[in-house]
Specification:
By secondary structure, the chain is an alpha/beta fold. The chain has four domains: 88 residues, Phosphorylase Kinase, domain 1, CATH 3.30.200.20; 210 residues, Transferase(Phosphotransferase) domain 1 (Transferase(Phosphotransferase), domain 1); 184 residues, Rossmann fold, CATH 3.40.50; 68 residues, Helicase, Ruva Protein, domain 3, CATH 1.10.8. Helix content is 35%, strand content 15%. The strands form five sheets. Strands 1-2-3-4-6-5 form a six-stranded antiparallel sheet, covered by helices on one side. β1 and β2 form a beta hairpin.
Length: 604
């Protein structure tokens, strides 16, 4: 069951008779964020800090919270405006709260997860907004270093026609003159942190490095020298060593000219200088960085010299297949499955020669199963785009024949053509109709078709063909199709969880005329147990209702009314049946010693 996370403070709680809790937004390691309404009728952000969880470096010599004291005295159009702060005792625990002006918009991380930024002009505009803040912070009599500039901490204010980037979250911010002992790295995303910070040495130049890392991410889809350090998180030293080792390699620049408008070598030269490992070779001030982005200064030799040919990497999938469409970026949620497939399948496809050196076969196929309407077919199509493979969709009627053994011949011909067109993804929709359990089939001809399918499927991955099957009836499949060397990876596709539903509403509503105040968190909370196709239907119906009532924009009220009138298409009893089937499949596979098979479905 999808459980909506709730915060410490209940809805409608009054704080000092000045602020009323409207909505819990998110939870961090030592703080929670809420949307509140002030006694003046305005909306605000309220950040609630748990005294017991704050690191000692978060306080100044007067035992005041540094983040609050810093923001209290800062004023800049690209910073959240300080409104109020205080202490709160709730249920016997002591908290500190900070109130900031409400920003109508989304984080940069949410923006690029929804749709990549496609022009260098827009990338530069965001960077200049943030650098203007840093120019202000670094030029104060007592300079302030932010220390945590990432896409998650850049907010895009959407109240005007042109989005304005604002730097948020000053939890790691410190005065440049403070002792290095005041610097705490716990919880930081190290992929955006300058190398000298690993030794507790922070400076204006380390903030500028982080801006360069954000620009690199916006252009190329990941931070520079990216390394997944999640498996090293138990040992805080090891991730730093892994990243430093990676940064000893040349910085590579994937070729994204086809995806990024006005992309040229000038931005690469700027990045090369911004991301120098030696702080003395970087931009020395935010103003200098801005001038370079605006084309007001030319970079000198060395760090700003032309990019070497070996640093330019063609961003092409295996075997020169050009990736079409947005791939996984078009899928809301399902992050666990996307990460799993990118790691286990796509990496193997793109590094096939390395697999051959280790005498490893390429992945063969997978089965997607679960309730109808949860996006199995859409996921398969986007997987093909992400991998850069040709995509062939087959339904049972495509293989039907009036002749004896005719279907067997069609199956053989289909796999032959897939091999010839490799790399190819063969997607079999409603696989249970094509490969039914032979224990339940009395027709000898149909048993022969199943045998032919299984024969063709054996180790097909080595031929550059990856097979995906989907079914709403996994218990009707012939079990032999799930053996190693066939559809050896199984994934349960459930109804979308809270985060996925929120992203789906954002995705389906983004290109439609919207009224101010659409609350995606509320929409997601109202649609528990709705499948993916239900959410698309809700948005379409809200649009139709808007047209019928001759309204100019889709309102929050229209969406809520539509949800109230449209029940989920898959009943709770059916969802429980699918969960039971899932458990039965897992138990059966364990009993048959499929111990090396990846766990089915998502982690609870």
């Amino acid at each position: 069951m999808d459980i909506l996370k709730t915060g410490i403070l209940p809805k409608n709680l009054s704080i000092d008779e000045r602020y009323s809790i409207l909505l819990f937004i998110k939870q961090g390691s030592n703080a929670e964020t809420y949307r509140v309404k002030g006694s003046d009728g305005k909306l605000y952000f309220l950040k609630l800090f748990n005294f017991a969880k704050l690191h000692r470096s978060a306080f100044d010599v007067n035992n005041s919270l540094l983040e609050i004291e810093l923001l209290r005295n800062l004023k800049h159009p690209n910073l959240p405006a300080y409104e109020d702060s205080g202490e709160l005792i709730f249920e016997g625990k002591k908290y500190i709260y900070l109130v900031l002006d409400f920003i109508v918009g989304e984080t940069l991380a949410e923006r690029i997860n929804r749709a990549p930024i496609s022009t260098v002009f827009d990338v530069k505009r965001i960077a200049v907004d943030i650098l203007s803040v840093l120019d202000y912070l670094h030029s104060l009599p007592e300079p302030i270093i932010h220390n945590e500039i990432t896409p998650q901490n850049i907010m895009l204010d959407l109240k005007n026609n042109i989005p304005q980037a604002k730097l948020i979250d000053f939890g790691y911010a410190r005065s440049f003159n403070q002792s290095t002992k005041a610097y705490n790295k716990d919880g930081l995303n190290l992929n955006y942190v300058a190398s000298e910070c690993f030794n507790n040495l922070y400076s204006p130049q380390s903030d500028l490095y982080s801006v360069g890392a954000v620009i690199y991410h916006l252009l190329f889809g990941m931070p520079p020298w990216f390394k997944d350090v999640s498996k090293f998180m138990a040992d805080r030293v090891k991730p730093e060593e892994v990243i430093l080792k990676e940064r000893n390699k040349p910085l590579l620049f994937p070729n994204v000219e086809a995806q990024i408008i006005d992309f040229d070598n000038e931005i690469l030269g700027i990045l090369k200088k911004a991301l120098q490992q030696d702080p003395d070779n970087r931009f020395q001030t935010a103003k200098e960085f801005i001038q370079a982005l605006n084309g007001e200064i030319e970079l000198d030799g060395g760090a700003g010299s032309p990019i070497k040919p070996e640093q330019l990497v063609e961003q092409k999938p295996a075997k020169e297949i050009v990736k079409k469409g947005k791939g996984f970026a078009a899928i809301a949620g399902m992050q666990h499955l996307k990460d799993k497939l990118r790691h286990d399948v796509i990496n193997a496809i793109e590094n096939s020669e390395e697999y051959k050196k280790h005498n490893l076969g390429l992945p063969n196929g997978m089965l997607l199963y679960g309730p109808p309407g949860c996006g199995k077919t859409f996921f398969a199509e986007k997987f093909a785009e992400e991998a850069g493979y040709n995509f062939i969709k087959i339904v049972s009627s495509d293989l039907a024949s009036i002749y004896v053994h005719g279907s067997q011949e069609k199956i053989g011909k289909l796999f032959k053509e897939a091999r010839e067109q490799a790399p190819t993804i063969l997607y079999f929709d409603e696989l249970d109709a094509m490969v039914p359990s032979r224990e339940k089939v009395n027709n000898q001809s149909q048993s022969g078709e199943v045998n032919e399918f299984l024969s063709q499927l054996d180790n097909i991955g080595d031929s550059g063909v990856f097979v995906i099957g989907s079914t709403n009836k996994p218990d009707s499949l012939d079990r032999a199709v799930l053996r190693a060397g066939r559809l050896e990876r199984l994934f349960y596709i459930p109804p979308p969880d809270f985060q996925a539903r929120k992203e789906m509403f954002e995705l389906y509503l983004k290109d439609r005329p919207l009224d101010f105040g659409i609350d995606y968190v509320v929409l997601a909370s109202l649609t528990e147990h709705y499948v993916s196709s239900d959410i698309k239907l809700l948005v379409d119906e809200a649009s139709r209702k808007t047209i019928r009532e001759q309204l100019k924009r889709i309102t929050m009220e229209t969406l809520e009314t539509t949800i109230k009138n449209q029940k989920p298409t898959v009943s709770m009893s059916d969802l429980k049946k699918y969960e039971m089937i899932r458990q039965e499949i897992e138990n059966d596979l364990n009993a048959e010693s499929f111990s090396n098979r990846p766990k089915i479905g998502f982690k609870p």
